[in-house]
Design brief:
This protein has 153 residues and is an alpha/beta fold. Helix content is 41%, strand content 23%. The chain is globular, with a radius of gyration of 15 Å.
Length: 153
């Protein structure tokens, strides 16, 4: 069974250079039987963010067991090795993983109460447009670690 991982951004990535680098990592992830997808669903109203997000996640999960992780500054901080083990533990439990990047104003209170799991990519703050690329790179690194493959091909 393929590993199912969705990255959902509540903001847009407008720089073509970043999208090009993201595509490079998406291709590399296919080497590891990783069914990865990226979705942008910019929300116009902060107050209904949780509804838009919940609708998208329900449509993508189609009744499968899932875990939703908000990528946020206050989330759990892991090393690359810890992230690799954690992701693969979740996937081995046949969970579909949904990682969510907040809007420019972050996550609404309703979104935070609906989804409790949080992960921080770094103690530093990154621009929203850069987060998908940083996440993809770490996901690729995680797969190379768990599969005991070289990072550079």
């Amino acid at each position: 069974m393929a590993k199912k991982i969705h990255l959902i951004s509540l903001a847009s990535t407008v720089f073509p250079e970043l999208k090009s680098l993201m595509e490079m990592y998406q291709k590399r992830l296919r080497l590891f039987a990783c069914d990865y997808s990226y979705w942008e669903i910019p929300t116009t109203q902060f107050s209904t963010q949780h509804l838009v997000l919940q609708k998208k996640i329900d449509a993508l999960s189609k009744g499968q067991q899932k875990l939703v992780i908000l990528l946020r500054e206050q989330g759990k901080t892991l090393t690359s090795e810890q992230f690799s083990k954690w992701v693969n533990t979740q996937l081995n439990q046949s969970l579909t993983l949904f990682f969510v990047i907040g809007a420019h104003q972050g996550f609404s209170a309703d979104t935070l109460s609906l989804y409790k799991e949080g992960l921080s990519l770094s103690p530093m703050t990154f621009p929203h447009q850069l987060v998908p690329l940083v996440f993809l790179e770490q996901l690729y690194r995680a797969e190379t670690l768990v599969e005991n493959k070289p990072y550079h091909y």
